[in-house]
Amino acid sequence: MSEWDGQGLPPVAAERVRRAAAGGAWTSLLTAPAAAALEVAGFDPVGEVMGSMVQRMGWQGYRGCGGYGWGGVPTTITSSDGNRFSGFAPYVQALYTGHGTAIGRLVAEAAAIGADGVVGVRLAQEPMFGNAHEFTAIGTAVRARSRTRPGRIFTTVLPAPDVTALLQAGWVPVQIVYGISVALRHDDWATRSQASWGAGNVEVSGYTDLIGTTRADARRLLRDAVRRTGADGAVLDDMTLSVWSVEPAENHRDHVAEATVFGTALGRFHAGAAAPTRTLTYLPLR
């Protein structure tokens, strides 16, 4: 096997696609009810497809002390703010690259076996040895039985029964969309006082601001992603939040929050009370 130059599909994936395209028995991740739902929607499964990437995440960025606004008041700085305190921007860019590459290779496999879309996509990020992380996307490629072909391959994290329900309601999945934000905030005197053992049941306003700002930024980035697809909206599938502290110096502590929002962008193809044909017609995405 020749040395892979990093372009296109990895050799092992290309060989798997070659076998699938040659015909024969196909595999899928569908349950029996999901396969039946696809039958109702006018789709046939054509194979299990996967995209993966192992990425070393070395320089992830960090600038201590969060950021301060006017009058020395601490402020929450997100990875998308674009200023010198947006310390975790390299880390977030690595996450976008990892997920985007995995999904891109999944779509390339689906295209190679003549699919029109991929349903039930499962996304994962797993730490490996050293600073390496594996990003994976795996799902079931499907092909529409109608004469009308889609303008591009759709991807969705939604299971097949949900896809069928959306199609019957006049909505078509466009692609997986997501927003990822990491924000940093310095623990100032007020925050430390509110979070101290003897403070009682009080709101820690600094942490509230950190978490709320991070989630809002992730949602904004997801909306931007939906807008770029040309879709009408999106249904969310998964939202996560993690918070940790860093201590760049003695008696100096910052808190970091990471928020992710994943979903499927949707486009409207008819507005009637019923589907436009007895078997659903899949319209081209423009």
What features would you highlight for this structure?
single chain; 286 residues; alpha+beta; Translation Initiation Factor IF3; 4-stranded mixed beta sheet; 4-stranded antiparallel beta sheet; 6 helices; 30% helix; Heavy metal-binding domain-containing protein; UPF0145_YbjQ-like; UPF0145_dom_sf
Helix segment tally: 6
Low-confidence stretches: 277-286
Give the CATH superfamily: Hypothetical protein apc22750. Chain B
Question: Structurally, how many domains make up the residues?
Answer: 1
Protein name: Heavy metal-binding domain-containing protein
Pfam family, one: YbjQ_1
Family: Belongs to the UPF0145 family.
Organism: Pseudonocardia dioxanivorans (strain ATCC 55486 / DSM 44775 / JCM 13855 / CB1190)
Q: What does this entry look like structurally?
A:
With 286 residues, the chain is of the alpha+beta class. The chain has a single domain (11-268), classed as Translation Initiation Factor IF3, CATH 3.30.110.70. 30% of the residues lie in helices and 34% in strands. It is built from 6 helices and 10 strands. The protein has helices at 11-21, 32-41, 89-112, 160-168, 189-195, 205-229; strands at residues 43-56, 67-68, 74-75, 77-78, 117-127, 132-144, 154-155, 171-186, 233-249, 252-268. The strands form 3 sheets. Strands 1-6-5-7 form a 4-stranded mixed sheet. Strands 4-8-10-9 form a 4-stranded antiparallel sheet, sandwiched between helices. Strands 2-3 form a two-stranded antiparallel sheet. The longest helix has 25 residues, at 205-229. The radius of gyration is 23 Å and the shape is elongated. InterPro entries: UPF0145_dom_sf, UPF0145_YbjQ-like. This is Heavy metal-binding domain-containing protein. Pfam families: YbjQ_1.
